[in-house]
Structure formats: structure tokens, C-alpha cells
Amino acid sequence: MKIQFLLPFFCSLLFSISCSNFIGGELNSDPNNPIDVPLFAMTPAIQINIADVYGGQFSRFNNLLVQHAEGVQRQWISVYQYTGMTPARFDTVWQNVYENILVEIKIAKEKAVAQNNNHYLGILNTMEAFILMAATDVWDDMPYTEALNGFNEFNPSYDTQAEIYTSVFQLLNDAENLFESSAGPVVPGDEDVFYNGNISLWKKAVQAIRARGLLHQKDYRGALDAAKASFDSPSDNMGYHYPDASSAGPWYRFNDGRTGDIEFHPVLRTIMESYNDSLRLSAWDQIFTTSHTYFVPDFFQELVTYRELQFIISECDFRLNNGSTDEGYDAYTNGIAASFARSGFEGQEDSYIEQNNVGLGAENLDLESIMTQKHIAMFMQPEAYSDFRRTGIPSLVASSGVSIPVRWHYSSEEYLFNINSPSETEVNIFTDKVGWNR
Questions:
Q1: What's the rounded Cα separation, in Å, for the pair 288 and 250?
Q2: Residue 103: CB atoms within 10 Å
Q3: In a designed cystine with 96, which of 53, 72, 157, 160 is the match (CB 3.0 to 4.6 A)?
Q4: Treating both helix axes as pointing N-terminal to C-terminal, what angle do 306-321 and 220-228 enclose, rounded to 10 degrees?
């Protein structure tokens, strides 16, 4: 059953059950004990929430910071100039990560364990690892171990980022083992809107997420091995394909309601023009409206991609060998080619790569070229912020003041209500680097 028909069907099912109970005189049902939601309905809802928050708030904040885009109107001017990056600005994204994703994953995992649905549990572990890493990469230490207990724990303590990364890698290891076991009584199918129940692709996604995390930890050998074991082509990319304008991708929805608030950044334009990158500029450098040819209604919101993994291979190869090998150089050009394809120009990258300042050859390839080309290829992908903080490439000038923020604030409600939270004045978004960046 296709997902666009699945959720309306499920809603109508709930409605019919409620009506039948009312008509049958069952007026003593507990309104605080809702009908149990099955895994096949919980899983796509969680996945779409992940795509929404990663392609929405994570993309907007992170890609403003790395100057893929700039805030030009209303509150987005102050966000872009950092004065608007106040705790209240992060209330919604904090709530989405915890209430709409992590808590829901915990509930779904409990169902999967109780029902021995191993492949479902593997999928849920993989998604938890992904969003947990994305969150700690911008918030550093976070409530996690004690954070998902609802009314049983109002003041969860903070796990260090090192502890959270240990949890991330354990979740990925567990997922890997679960995917090697029998599926259980219910086999994931079309309701899995990322991979339609294809466990082979989920195994590759585990390796892709692991490679990203190991790269952050400066384990270049481990990251290289994981990246090489992950995606074989862009068709393996992990993400969600939004159906149409009625259920459109995050950037289309933002541009529809906030036309003119955020636009393509002149710094990225200058970088791309220095490489005569006219094709990708033609797709990206447009007024951010609903007519934008890249941010289309049926957008494929990527979470982790083949092109990112190819650049990870190239970077790790360079670092481990004190220079690029042919394998690392091939990965570098593969990453560029995949970016052209993603932008609608499949097979049209040759003239770009043949330029002297792009097609350097393995013997002349350097880290700045790898990371600059990755910076372009990761257009509006939140991971570009981690790359910039790790390497300082490309060289960017702060849009206001003297430095670019190196992390996000916690939400205002977290500062206010969790006695274990640091105070707002104890967190300096300009100097308090996250654990892996110290």
C-alpha cells in the first residue's frame, strides 16, 4: 500500500473505530488511553518527521551558517547575523527532535521488541542513530539516557557527546546484527518510505551513517572502510521523496510561506563562479520561490548520500596516505559527478572536471580542493556545517561580528525547566565547540 494512501486509510480506520464505539454505547472508554498504533503506521510518520526536521530547521540554520544561503528579510536577517540565534529560536526543532522523533522511536522500538519484529527494530535503531548524531553535532552534550521517560523524569541529566556517540555506534551495531537475523512476523514493506523495506539498502545506510560519525571522530581508517562498504551509487541514497505540492518538501513549503526571507548566498556564488560552475548555478541561484527549479514540490530530501560518501573516501584517503591515491581521486570526481546528476545535469560534468583548478589529478589533489568541491556538492545539506567546523574550508568571513557560531543554543524551555541544564549564560555559541571539534 502506497504511503500517500496509507495514512488517510489509517485515519479513517481510527474514525470508524471511534464511531462504532460511540454508537455501541461504549461511553466508558478511557480518553487518556488511545487506540494502539501499529508499527506499520508509526514507522512512516517517524521517517517523515525526520525528513521534515533535517530538511527544514537543520538545513535552514546550518546552511545559513556556512553561507549556502543568506537571511534577507524579517527574522531571518537577525538569524543570519547571529543576533537572532537565541534559545527561543530553537524551541521548535528541540521539540521535534525529542517529542516527535526520539520519543516516538522509543515507543515503536518497544513494540518491535515485544513482537520480535527484528527488521523493524533494525530500521528504528538506524533512524535513531541518524537523528541522535545530527542533534549532538549541533547541541553537544544532551539529555538522552534519562530523556525519554515522559512524566517519570522531568529533569533528565545530560549525556556527554562522547557518551552519545557511543550510543550512536551501538545502535548501528545492533541494527547491523538485526538485519542479519530473520525479519520476524511482520516484514517491512512500502510503508518504509525511505527504502520500501529493502534491507540490503538499510545495511548500506548503516555503513554510511557510521562513516559520517567516524569521520567526525577523526577515525579516518574506520570512516574510509565504512564509506567503501556503503552506497554504490546515488540510487542508494537515504531520504524521503515528497509526493506533490499538497505534501511538499520542506524548502518548497518554506518558500511558499516565506518568499524572499532567505536567498542564495553571494559567497557561494563567487566560489562557484571561480570554477565556471554555470550549470549548477543555473539550478540553484534563483529567487527562492515556489517556482525554484531545484526546491520542487516533489523534492527528494536526502539524509545521507553517495556523493557525501565519495568525498569522505577522498578525504580519508588523502589524510591516511599524506596525499591522494588514484582511488581517492576517483572518489573526488565521482562526488562531483553525483552532484551534477542531483542538480539535473547527469553526465554533463566532464567540461567542469577538465578545468585545471578542478581536474588536478591524484598527484596534485589537496585537502582544500576536496573540501571545497564537497562544500559545493553539499548545497543546503546540514552536514556542510560539520565539514566547515572540522576543516575550516572554505574560508568564510562572519556575516556579523568576528566569528561564525560553532554550535546551537539549547531551547529556551530546556534552559528554563530542566534543572540539569546549563544556564543560558554558560553556553557561548561562538566559542563552546562540540566535543569532536575541540
A1: 12
A2: 16
A3: 53
A4: 140
> H-type helices in 343-402, by residue range?
350-353, 367-377, 383-391
For CA atoms 149, 150, 156, 162, give the dihedral sign: positive
What is the reported pLDDT for 230? 98
Task: State the DSSP string of 27-69.
Answer: TT--TTSPPPPPHHHHHHHHHHHHHHHIIIIIHHHHHHHTTSE
Q: DSSP readout, 209-261?
A: HHHHHHHHTT-HHHHHHHHHTS-SSGGG-EEEE--BTTB--HHHHHHHHSTTT
Q: What is the pLDDT of residues 107-137, one digit of tens each?
A: 999 999 999 999 999 999 999 999 999 999 9
- 295-346 tens-digit pLDDT: 999 999 999 999 999 999 999 999 999 999 999 999 999 999 999 999 999 9
What is the rounded CA–CA span in Å between residue 337 and residue 98? 36
Q: Determine the length of the chain.
A: 438
Cell of 358: 578542478
Cα gap 376→371, rounded to integer Å: 9
Strand, helix or coil at 155?
coil
